[in-house]
C-alpha cells in the first residue's frame, strides 16, 4: 500500500478543501496521513484519516511599526533571543524530518503556505508536490491579485490595471519585508532558511518568487490548485508545473445534527410549501482582527430582516451566540453552529464572507450567493470577484453597507430567477484523473 502524507497549514479550512483530494487517493488504495497540531486531531480523525502531530515552524508576524519597535528593542538588548529563535527553527526542521522518516511516504503533499518544507524535503522525497487551497496566488499576465474585488475582463485596459495592482503588491511586500528585517535586525526566518538550504546545496534565490500573494512563492515547484478550473478567470494560462484538481467531499460531522434538525423541521416544512424563503449567513472562523467588523455587519444584517417577514434568516456565529444582542427579529435564528453542507440544499440564498469552501459548497448546492469580503488582505475579495464574473451571485461592502442596502440586495437576489440560469455548474474531474503520467512531482 502506498502512503500519501499531507503537511497542511494548521487551520480547519485548509484541511476541509484538501479532504476531497485525500479521499480520492484513499479510494485508489493509498494510506493517507495528515500532519497537524493537537487541536486538529479530532477534525482529521473524524474523517477516518490518520493524524500525526507536528511541531510547526513559528513565523513572527510584524503587523505594524509599534510591534516592530518592540521587537527591535528586544532583539538589540537580548542576544539570547536570536539564538533561541534559530534553535526553534532547527528544532522544527528536525521535527518534520523525523515525522517523514517515521511515516516513509511514497508521495508528499505540502500546503503552499508552508512551501519552505518543499525545499527541505524534496531531495529525500522526490515525489513531492505543493497543494494550494486557494485560487492561484502567483502573478499571471491579465490576472489581478486575489485582494482585488473588481470583476475583471480580458481586455488591454484590465491587463494594464492587473499589472499596476501587482506592482502595488510588490511595494507592500518589500515594505513589510524590510520592516520585519529592521525589527529583527535581519535575523528572521528567511535568514535561517537560507543557512539550512545552503548547507544542502540549494540556492534559495533560484526558487524564490516574490510575485506571489500572502507569502513568497517557489518558481517551478509542482503545484495542485484544489479548486475547480471554472472558478478562475477563463483566460488564466497554466504553467507546465501546475494543474487544477477539485474533488467535492461530504465531511463527516463531528457533532450530532439531530437537535438542529428537530428545531428547524417546522421552518423547513414551511419553506417546502412555498410559504417562506430561507437565507443562511456565515462569515467563517473569525480572527481577532476581523471580529469587530464582522459583528457589526451581522447586527445590521439581522436588523435588515425586520422588514422581510416572509424571509427567514439562520446565522451561524459563535461570538454573537455567546452574547446575543437584544431585539433580534422573530424571523432570525442565531446559532453557534450549523451543519452547513447539509443545510444549503434547503436554502434560497447564502450570505458569505467570500471563503473558497463556502462559495464552492453553494455552487454545488445550486444556491445563490451574496458575498461580503471580510479579510481584505487575503483571498476573499478575489474569490468574490470571480464569483460575480461567473454569474453565481453578487457582492457588497461588509464595512459600509446600510441595513437598507443589504435588504435591497437580498430582495434582488431572491426575486431574480434568471440568476439560476446563468449560474455555471462546476465540473468535477473523475477520481482516477490522478495518474503517474500526470504526476507533477516529476516536473522539477
From TrEMBL:
Keyword check for 4Fe-4S: no
Cross-referenced CDD domains: GT1_Gtf-like
Protein name (Swiss-Prot/TrEMBL): Uncharacterized protein
Domain of life (superkingdom): Bacteria
InterPro entries reported in the protein's UniProt record: UDP-glycosyltransferase, UDP_glucos_trans
Secretion signal span: none
Keyword annotations from UniProtKB, A to Z: Glycosyltransferase, Transferase
Species this chain originates from: Spirosoma radiotolerans
One MF annotation (Gene Ontology) recorded for this entry: UDP-glycosyltransferase activity
A Pfam match: UDPGT
Amino acid at each position: 500500500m502506498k502512503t500519501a502524507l499531507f503537511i497542511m497549514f494548521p487551520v480547519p479550512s485548509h484541511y476541509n478543501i484538501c479532504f476531497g483530494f485525500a479521499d480520492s487517493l484513499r479510494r485508489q488504495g493509498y494510506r493517507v496521513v495528515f500532519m497537524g497540531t493537537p487541536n486538529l486531531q479530532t477534525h482529521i480523525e473524524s474523517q477516518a484519516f490518520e493524524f500525526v502531530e507536528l511541531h510547526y515552524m513559528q513565523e513572527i508576524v510584524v503587523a505594524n511599526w509599534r510591534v516592530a519597535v518592540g521587537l527591535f528593542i528586544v532583539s538589540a538588548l537580548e542576544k539570547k533571543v536570536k539564538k533561541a529563535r534559530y534553535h526553534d527553527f532547527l528544532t522544527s526542521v528536525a521535527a518534520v524530518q523525523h515525522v517523514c522518516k517515521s511515516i516513509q511516504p511514497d508521495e508528499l503533499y505540502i500546503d503552499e503556505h508552508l512551501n519552505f518544507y518543499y525545499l527541505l524535503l524534496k531531495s529525500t522525497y522526490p515525489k513531492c508536490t505543493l497543494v494550494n487551497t486557494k485560487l492561484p496566488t502567483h502573478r499571471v499576465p491579465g490576472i489581478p491579485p486575489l485582494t482585488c474585488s473588481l470583476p475583471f475582463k480580458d481586455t488591454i485596459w484590465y491587463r494594464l490595471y492587473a499589472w499596476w495592482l501587482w506592482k502595488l503588491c510588490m511595494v507592500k511586500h518589500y515594505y513589510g519585508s524590510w520592516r520585519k528585517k529592521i525589527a529583527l535586525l535581519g535575523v528572521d526566518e528567511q535568514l535561517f532558511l537560507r543557512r539550512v538550504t545552503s548547507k544542502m546545496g540549494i540556492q534559495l534565490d533560484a526558487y524564490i518568487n516574490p510575485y506571489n500573494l500572502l507569502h513568497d512563492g517557489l518558481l517551478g515547484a509542482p503545484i495542485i490548485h484544489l479548486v475547480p478550473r471554472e472558478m478562475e478567470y477563463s483566460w488564466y494560462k497554466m504553467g507546465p508545473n501546475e494543474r487544477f484538481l477539485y474533488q467535492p467531499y461530504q465531511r463527516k460531522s463531528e457533532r450530532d445534527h439531530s437537535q438542529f434538525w428537530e428545531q428547524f423541521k417546522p421552518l423547513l416544512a414551511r419553506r417546502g410549501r412555498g410559504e417562506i424563503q430561507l437565507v443562511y449567513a456565515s462569515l467563517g472562523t473569525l480572527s481577532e482582527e476581523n471580529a469587530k467588523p464582522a459583528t457589526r455587519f451581522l447586527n445590521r444584517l439581522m436588523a435588515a430582516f425586520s422588514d422581510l417577514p416572509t424571509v427567514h434568516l439562520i446565522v451561524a456565529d459563535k461570538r454573537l451566540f455567546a452574547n446575543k444582542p437584544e431585539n433580534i427579529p422573530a424571523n432570525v435564528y442565531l446559532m453557534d453552529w450549523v451543519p452547513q453542507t447539509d443545510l444549503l440544499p434547503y436554502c434560497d440564498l447564502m450570505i458569505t464572507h467570500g471563503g473558497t469552501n463556502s462559495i464552492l459548497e453553494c455552487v454545488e448546492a445550486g444556491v445563490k450567493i451574496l458575498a461580503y469580503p471580510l479579510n481584505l488582505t487575503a483571498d476573499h475579495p478575489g474569490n468574490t470577484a470571480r464569483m460575480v464574473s461567473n454569474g453565481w451571485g453578487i457582492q457588497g461592502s461588509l464595512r459600509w453597507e446600510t441595513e437598507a442596502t443589504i435588504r435591497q440586495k437580498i430582495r434582488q437576489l431572491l426575486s431574480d430567477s434568471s440568476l439560476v440560469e446563468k449560474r455555471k455548474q462546476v465540473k468535477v474531474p473523475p477520481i482516477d484523473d490522478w495518474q503517474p503520467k500526470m504526476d507533477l512531482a516529476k516536473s522539477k
